[in-house]
């Protein structure tokens, strides 16, 4: 007998059982959660009134007087889309789509959408919502969206369609067995596809939020059981997504001088969110470092999102174009000297600003003008590994000025 072969599945199954026992340990007992999900719309209408059907039809535009949930839903949705940066025509699977507001807006952006949910009543609203919108993104071309009533905990998604992205937008906590749900949906995810999850983080046990979740579960028989960051990370690992990034939300308008991103993060209470993008291969993740690097005198520089391939200028050496937001990582470098150079194609533009952040804290604020188009900056880099972000307030594309280049550019950067 091959003991190793028999031991590994046992160890895997035990790991899964321990995780499921952990995430479901405090659930109210003797509730049929699947039937609760199927009957959810009818239950809230009976308990709280018929206006709840209209709420699902117009969500997230639920009206006042408290708009906080609207801001949260829209900010998070748009932030995630910006981070995923998916091209038009991308096939997206919207899991737990409910009444379809996420599918609706993805379709309005020109994506090809399949929304799935266990509730036939909510799927009916999703279809009604799409049918009632006469304005698809392309003239004479209808929305590319379909809705399916499927129990993805019970069986894999039917058909043979493959998706570029599987999305759980505030939906994963509704599954008693999130491992089964993810497996039965990502079996249709392309090998180079992305899994995106947005979830509120689990509140402290017996806190006011935790007690409110328990009341909702007992009243409507619908799961309101968020995960901790460790639990969600374990879910991704078990399901074969060993490569993931967790993001913190950052939105709002701030007074001048609030440059320290750590202070801003504390304002938005980022620890209350688990927003993750996962992939089967590390190079597929957003903010990835492609391996395009240069050897520095004392270490290595890796160029990430926002920087373009190295170019050369006579007598000045190599430079890289930067977009409006660009990243690089340094390894084993104590001090880094840079030169930034502005290019003003717009005749009315006289100056631009560039912020340089290290590990999420803004350290330099540069102003480049037509009179002083270059600026040098020296950065101290404690520790063996640092992440630098460059943010510019001037953006242009050469083809806006009849030049044969459609890249989105901001400034030039040289390593001195």
Structure in words:
Helices cover 29% and strands 28% of the residues. The chain has a 7-stranded mixed sheet, with helices on both faces. Strands 8-9-12-17-14-15 form a 6-stranded antiparallel sheet, with no helix packed on it. A 5-stranded antiparallel sheet has the order 10-11-18-13-16, with no helix packed on it. It folds into 2 domains: 11-284, 3-Layer(aba) Sandwich (Rossmann fold), CATH 3.40.50.150; 293-415, Jelly Rolls. The protein is α+β, with helices and mostly antiparallel strands. The model is unreliable at 262-268 (pLDDT under 50).
Features:
alpha+beta; Jelly Rolls; seven-stranded mixed sheet; 18 strands
The total tally of domains equals 2
- The radius of gyration computed from the alpha-carbon positions, rounded to a whole number of angstroms, is 25 Å
Largest sheet composition: 7 strands, mixed
CATH architecture of the largest domain: 3-Layer(aba) Sandwich
Q: Choose one word for the global shape.
A: globular
Which bin fits the share of residues in helices? 25-40%
The string of secondary-structure elements, in order, is HHHHHEHEHEEHEHHEHEEEEEEEEEEEE
Strand line-up across the major sheet: 3-2-1-4-5-7-6
End-to-end separation = 63 Å
Structural class: alpha+beta
Rounded mean pLDDT score = 88
The proportion of strand residues reads 25-35%
Q: In terms of per-residue confidence, which ranges show pLDDT below 50 for 5 or more consecutive residues?
A: 262-268
**What's the CATH topology name of the largest domain?**
Rossmann fold
